[in-house]
Specification:
single chain, 160 residues, alpha+beta, Alpha-Beta Plaits, 2 domains, four-stranded antiparallel beta sheet, two-stranded antiparallel sheet, 6 helices, 6 strands, 34% helix, flat, Tscrpt_reg_AsnC-like, transcription regulation, transcription, WH-like_DNA-bd_sf, sequence-specific DNA binding
Amino acid sequence: MREKILTFIEKNSRINLKELAIMLGVDEASVANEIAAMEQENVICGYHTLIDWDKAGLEKVTAMIEVRVTPQRGMGFDKIAERIYNYPEVKSVYLISGGFDLMVTLEGKTLREVSQFVTDKLSTLDQVLSTKTNFILKKYKDHGTIMAAPVKSDERGIMS
């Protein structure tokens, strides 16, 4: 039942418990108890709303920053990741494979604000060896949700 609940609420965290119980063929109390238990165990870590900030008319800049670090003895990458994720601008931090060690996602109001964060805060941490900043120019799909309008096919005829 856990996997089914998680699958449904990952797509729609606002689903009505009664509706979810009917879809799963169990009583509403069972679903509520299971969700409460998963929240207590931190299996469910939070509920979020996916917003298209461009359509909301608010300026927001998102950057994905690749970070190469020196891991600390006995702690690996965890301590430096913790220092980074504690900044309020940082939205996510992932340990990744490849040429860099961490992928940091952050948001700011302007390109300058994001660049300032990288220069003044991220790059000054002792364990940070290098960074590479990638600004998100357009979101096509985010958290499984298609953000872009479907591309219309060109209905003009071919001229020869």
